[in-house]
């Protein structure tokens, strides 16, 4: 090497990257998630990483989080990329996609989308600048049946269970319950209360009390009632009776309780404790209009949500003059995965996907080794052929270090049999590449 200055290799904060053995697990998770989405009839779409800024900012919620796009060597006066940005979630691009392809889609349109997103926020545990989201949404013209409000958390439940994620619960609420309850208390700004109540897990009861009084001017009686509602939990539709016992009434509250009860009844066959009606869940974004979801780890209650979403009135309305309500839920793959990795809850082993390493006896037997590997690949195995005629011990150590479970020995001499070594047991037996089956 010359005397040029070396650039110190270091990861960029908030942009996670994994070693091969960890990435293999993440890929398997992604495969499981996609298969689950498809089992329920959701179809895959992928939108560009980049959207026009007016699309990204159509809802005006996260303008401070958007990374804009500009070429480093852009010519003076060249602002062609100045109105482009990286998408910060998958919902806004999906709304644009539906509006753009409206005449080509079959409704209700059930889509899933698994992509990376980018947010310009301060990195901390559970929050990243680049991460993978796994979204499913159902969008329809004029009305989305309430059935889907129950189907989406059922799918998320199936995925989290199948992946073996440690103890968690999917918490469910309904914005109509909150808005109807606050309206029944005579509060003029129910959405303002929702935005403050959504901070309950961050600033605590005292912080919420202070904000409700100082920001919205609520009376002590109203504040007490709001907090009494927020502390209600339940595992079934009986939670509606607990809410009614607070003595507040309104038509919107009744509508929300009916919807919440329907969803809980539909999910009543799932294991106790996995689906919880939690009246503190508010989801502060204004576009939610009904059911809302927030999944949390049981053992790490202060950690961010691991899945979230809800029903919205018309996200595509900014792009097309049609009423297109929807309901969606997002699984925060990177947030879940990174936490389990940090806690030592991921069992890593092999650092490559190979099932078999075919050794190279010597350069004269290279064709035999290559043909053996081809036969095994044709039968569905992932197979490496060792790259040069090193000592046999070195080739076996290579397989051991990479976690390759089987080492295949093609004939070292004409007329000799093939042999395969089980690296776990140490057993080595004769084998035929056309008929051998992995134990």
In short:
By secondary structure, the chain is an alpha+beta fold.
Question: How would you explain this protein's 3D organization?
Answer:
Pfam families: HGTP_anticodon, tRNA-synt_His. Its EC number is 6.1.1.21. Residues 33-361 form the Aminoacyl-transfer RNA synthetases class-II family profile domain. By secondary structure, the chain is an alpha+beta fold. It has helices at 20-39, 53-56, 91-100, 147-162, 175-184, 190-197, 200-216, 220-230, 239-244, 251-266, 333-342, 366-378, 392-402; strands at 43-44, 50-52, 84-86, 109-118, 130-139, 168-174, 233-234, 275-278, 288-297, 307-312, 326-332, 356-358, 383-385, 406-409, 418-422, 428-431. α5 (175-184) runs antiparallel to α10 (251-266). It is elongated, with a radius of gyration of 28 Å. The protein starts with 19 loop residues before the first helix and ends in an 8-residue tail after the last strand.
State the main characteristics.
439 residues, alpha+beta, nine-stranded mixed β-sheet, five-stranded mixed β-sheet, 13 helices, EC 6.1.1.21, ATP-binding, protein biosynthesis
Order of helices and strands: HEEHEHEEHEHHHHEHHEEEEHEHEHEEE
Weakly predicted, low-confidence segments: none
Mean pLDDT: 92
Largest sheet, strands/sense/barrel: 9 strands, mixed
Q: Proportion of β residues?
A: 15-25%
Helix content: 25-40%
Structure class? alpha+beta
Tally the helices.
13
Rg calc: 28 Å
Number of strands: 16
3D shape: elongated
What secondary-structure arrangement, pairings included, does this model have?
Layout: H1 20-39, E1 43-44, E2 50-52, H2 53-56, E3 84-86, H3 91-100, E4 109-118, E5 130-139, H4 147-162, E6 168-174, H5 175-184, H6 190-197, H7 200-216, H8 220-230, E7 233-234, H9 239-244, H10 251-266, E8 275-278, E9 288-297, E10 307-312, E11 326-332, H11 333-342, E12 356-358, H12 366-378, E13 383-385, H13 392-402, E14 406-409, E15 418-422, E16 428-431
Parallel strand pairs: 1-4, 6-8, 12-13, 12-14
Antiparallel strand pairs: 2-3, 4-5, 5-11, 6-9, 7-8, 9-10, 10-11, 14-15, 15-16
Helix pairs in contact: 1-4, 4-10, 5-6, 5-10, 6-7, 7-8
Protein name: Histidine--tRNA ligase
Pfam family, one: tRNA-synt_His
Domain Aminoacyl-transfer RNA synthetases class-II family profile: 33-361
């Amino acid at each position: 090497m010359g005397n040029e200055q070396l650039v110190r290799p270091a990861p960029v904060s908030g942009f996670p990257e994994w070693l091969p053995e960890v990435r293999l697990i993440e890929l398997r998770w992604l495969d499981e998630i996609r298969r689950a989405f498809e089992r329920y009839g959701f179809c895959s779409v992928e939108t560009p990483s980049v959207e026009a800024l007016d699309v990204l900012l159509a809802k005006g919620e996260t303008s401070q989080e958007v990374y804009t796009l500009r070429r480093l060597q852009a010519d003076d006066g060249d602002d062609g990329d100045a109105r482009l940005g990286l998408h910060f979630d998958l919902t806004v691009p999906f709304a644009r996609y539906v509006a753009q392809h409206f005449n080509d889609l079959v409704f209700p349109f059930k889509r899933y989308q698994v992509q990376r997103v980018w947010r310009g926020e301060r990195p901390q545990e559970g929050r990243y600048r680049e991460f993978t989201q796994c979204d499913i949404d159902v969008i329809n013209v004029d009305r989305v049946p309430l059935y889907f409000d129950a189907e989406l958390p059922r799918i998320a439940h199936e995925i989290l269970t199948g992946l073996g994620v440690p103890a968690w619960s999917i918490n469910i609420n309904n914005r109509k319950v909150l808005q109807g309850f606050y309206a029944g208390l005579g509060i003029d700004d129910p959405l303002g209360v929702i935005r403050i109540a959504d901070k309950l897990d961050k600033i605590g009861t005292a912080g919420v009390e202070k904000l409700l009084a100082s920001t919205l001017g609520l009376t002590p009686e109203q504040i007490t009632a709001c907090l009494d509602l927020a502390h209600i939990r339940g595992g079934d539709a009986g939670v509606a009776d607990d809410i009614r016992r607070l003595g507040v009434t309104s038509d919107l509250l009744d509508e929300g309780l009916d919807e919440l009860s329907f969803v809980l009844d539909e999910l009543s066959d799932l294991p106790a404790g996995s689906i919880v009606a939690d009246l503190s869940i508010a989801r502060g974004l204004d576009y939610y209009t009904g059911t809302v979801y927030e999944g949390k780890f049981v053992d790490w209650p202060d950690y961010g949500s691991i899945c979230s979403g809800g029903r919205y009135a018309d996200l595509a309305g900014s792009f097309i003059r049609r009423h297109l309500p929807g309901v969606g839920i997002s699984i925060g793959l990177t947030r879940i995965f990174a936490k389990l990795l940090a806690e030592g809850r991921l069992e890593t082993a092999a650092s490559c996907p190979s099932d078999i390493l075919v050794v190279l006896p010597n350069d004269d037997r290279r064709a035999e080794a290559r043909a053996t590997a081809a036969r095994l690949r044709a039968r569905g195995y992932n197979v490496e052929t060792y790259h040069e005629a090193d000592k046999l011990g070195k080739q076996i150590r290579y397989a051991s270090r990479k976690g390759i479970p089987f080492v295949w020995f093609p004939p070292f001499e004409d007329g000799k049999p093939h042999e395969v070594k089980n690296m776990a047991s140490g057993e080595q037996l004769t084998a035929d590449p056309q008929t051998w089956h992995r134990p």
